[in-house]
Design a protein that fits this description.
Elements (H helix, E strand, L loop, with lengths): L3 E2 L2 H21 L5 E7 L3 H17 L2 E7 L5 H12 L6 E4 L9 H7 L11 H8 L8 H12 L8 E5 L6 H10 L3 E5 L6 H5 L4 E4 L17 E4 L3 E2 L5 E2 L4 H4 L5 E2 L6 H20 L3
Parallel strand pairs: 1-11, 2-3, 2-4, 5-6, 5-7, 7-8, 8-11
Antiparallel strand pairs: 9-10
The chain binds guanine.
Guanine (GUN) binds next to strand 4 and helix 6.
Amino acid sequence: MTAKILDGNVLSTRLREALRIRTSELTVQGCQPGLAVILVGSDPASQVYVRNKIKACETVGLLSEKYEYPADTRPEVVFHRIAALNNDPSIHGILVQLPLPPQFDADAVLAAISPEKDVDGFHAENVGALMQGQPHFIPCTPYGVMQMLKSENVNLRGAEAVIVGRSNIVGKPMAMLLLGASATVTVCHSQTRDLALHTRRADVLVAAVGRAKMITGDMIKPGATVIDVGINRQADGKLCGDVDFETAKEVAGLITPVPGGVGPMTITMLLTNAIEAAERTIGK
Ligand code: GUN
């Protein structure tokens, strides 16, 4: 069996058409959505992500502002910038690209962003709201994964969902969303004793560990839906996921590729959150 490919670029293009209409309606009403992106340091992956986010804003008519700081920037400088952006009515969403250099307390930085502009959904208030099942902003990557599952009518009610990875950015919010959709959720991590025992039970498997090709075909239940959140750069410079695509596609029923799977959806959901933030300011 060869799995059906769940193409994140195709779904993103469709969703972004609808976003463009929402942006133009807001702009006509004098409220063009604005996103500010803060990048500290020169991590090459972060630079690529931020560039792609800014580029995507242009494609749907969002105003974007990029604030770049060298790695040795004092935290006060960034806190000052966030405070200014919190009070800027032309900015509806603020994103601080993670990871931050070691002199930063990332939790404190995220806490400084106004929860109403926290389009990543990382502020403790928004994390709590998601946990209570009343999300204000859903973190972009898990939000994108849920949209992908929805687009293929993947049945989540009562399904065995296994997440590999427990990060605040993906694993934990992903668990909350799948639980909210009535899946039975297992979260595996680096200390999990027998990983394959869990992954082989999964109707829906989400890989978000950041280790190249660690989920192989023999770890997958035949016909399962496999979502690969990983983006790893191989020695030859090419990108690959956390799933070994070649062996996995022979076993899975539905699978996301890397690149071109979850990645573009993460950005699409960021745009969605920023537009929603702008709509809320005019009571839409
Ligand atoms: N670093 C890796 N993923 C993300 C993300 O979704 N948002 C931010 N702000 N930083 C990240």
